[in-house]
């Protein structure tokens, strides 16, 4: 039977923690011991990595990766807070030192302080130059504002002109379409009227000479696009069929 482990008291654990901290501080203050300690830690890490006790984040599962990244974030936050607190402590100590210096300077010679104030105060020429620089800066700002206003006005004017051009282009396109449609309608009406008149004339005439004259005119090149010849052929065929029926 294995002996049960004795539970150590909290005082003993705290004493050991304090002893470890003191030992680590001693090692950290000595550069040689600190270098050897870091080398030991590095070798221990490499041995654990070779024996696959430590996994790289690429070898971990997605759940383990999330846990590891959370740990890294928490440690980074702690480190940042520690640095901020150190900076605050440093600034407070610097202010305390400055206040002590000021209190020590109160008991100094007043004549020396007057000389220092004169040296620190700028001369008249320097003041004039500073005023000129300020006026030039103000002028530059005003010019910049006026230029920006002009640019915005021109941009607005360009937008208005673009809209007007778009409207005019739409109107012109619509007018062109309407004129083209009107011309097409006129041509169709003319073709229909001409076709009707010629077919009526051809149907009413009885002499073969007049019919041949009409057909010769229609077969010409000028009348081909009026589509009159096809209608006349239909009329001729109808008349021939009627004559054949009458003979029978």
From TrEMBL:
Annotated stretches, region: Disordered: 21-49
Chain coiled-coil ranges: 151-196
Keywords: Coiled coil
Compositionally biased region (Basic and acidic residues): 37-49
Natural source organism: Pieris macdunnoughi
Keyword Coiled coil annotated: yes
Protein name per UniProt: Uncharacterized protein
Presence of the UniProt keyword Coiled coil in the record: yes
